[in-house]
Amino acid sequence: QVQLVESGGGLVQAGGSLRLSCEASGRTFSSYSLGWFRQAPGKERELVAFISATGGTTYYGDSVKGRFTISRDNAKNTVPLQMNNLGPEDTGVYYCAARRAHMDFNYWGQGTQVTVSS
Questions:
Q1: Is the per-residue pLDDT at 104 higher than 80?
Q2: pLDDT per residue as tens digits for the range 47-87
Q3: Three-state secondary structure call for residue 52
Q4: How far apart are CA 48 and CA 68, in angstroms?
Q5: For 65, which of 15, 42, 88, 91 is 20 to 30 Å away at the CA?
């Protein structure tokens, strides 16, 4: 099992940057793929970024490509999400989630709020 805790959310002006962090507990962190999801008010939760267990594969949602960067440090059990050039459309609760290969995202953090003012 793995437990996830997000941090780094807050209020930022449009055009600004934030760096979220997902810290995981558990000795098998390096065997999990990680995803960052967000849920905006009144909208469904969407996957914004994904990184494989080894870090060799990443994926970004179309709305964040070129602006967000996901990485991982398996030695520190962390998965940062660097978010640049933020816009009001990036407002929402951001969640970190983990899954083992070929399985659903079964482990979720509590979420961190990101609010971008125009």
A1: yes
A2: 999 999 999 999 999 999 999 999 999 999 999 999 999 99
A3: coil
A4: 9
A5: 42
Strand intervals (E) in the chain: 3-7, 10-13, 18-25, 33-39, 46-51, 58-60, 68-70, 78-83, 92-99, 107-108, 112-117
Residues in the chain: 118
Give the per-residue pLDDT at 26.
80
Q: What torsion do the CA atoms of 89, 103, 99, 96 make, to the nearest 10 degrees?
A: 20
Token pair belonging to 66: 């070129």
CA distances from 31 to 63, 83, 106 (A): 28, 25, 14
Question: Of the given ranges (22-31, 41-50, 65-74), which has the lowest mean pLDDT?
Answer: 22-31
Do 41 and 115 form a contact (C-beta atoms < 8 A)?
Answer: no
Torsion sign across C-alpha atoms 68, 74, 75, 78 = positive
Q: Are 94 and 37 in contact (CB under 8 A)?
A: yes
Which residues does residue 82 pair with via DSSP β-bridges, in sequence order? 19, 69
